[in-house]
Amino acid sequence: MNAMTVTATDRPIEPETDHSPCPVLTAALDQAIRDRPCVELTRALCQTLAGLIREQRLLLPAEVFQACPDHYARRLIHHCPELGYTVIAMTWGPGQGTPVHDHSGLWCVEGVVAGSLEVIQYELMETRGDRFRFEQRQTLAAGSGSAGSLIPPHEYHTIRNVSDEDICVSLHVYGGQMERCCVFQPLADGWYLRQDKPLSLD
Ligand SMILES: [Fe+2]
Q: How far is the CA of 22 from the centre of ligand 1 (A)?
């Protein structure tokens, strides 16, 4: 996630009671995505997503606000067959997070709906087979109403809810269907071992 460019006050989001797509969200995304190059598109999506959060217009399913006890939850909100994008809601219990991972070469726009996330960016320096060397870059505190983007090849980061008691909900718009990714387990001296990881939905 790049620098958070838009912020809003931390206000509660009214959840819906089912898992149906949010028409306001999908109409806004359709308009923002259509016929735009990647950099312009993700910039527009950041503004769109942050604005919808700030204006409390995201009517997300109630279960999105329920954490899973042993892993961060991934719930499909919407997939657009025509434009190809996918919207996933992620729910982060206290302390839950990810290892360093990639995004399978897909662009991604991520917005924080509730709570706060720590996002640490990594830059790929060199590879030797399945061993990758990264250098840690910027650490961001992404609060409610923040939105940022990842554009390959700059697609490596960790995400963690560092709160001891609050859950965090984030919304992720991908430029395709991300059904697997690579995660990187630390070895030594900045080197990591690449592992393929299938991604499931809750
Ligand atoms: Fe990510």
A: 22
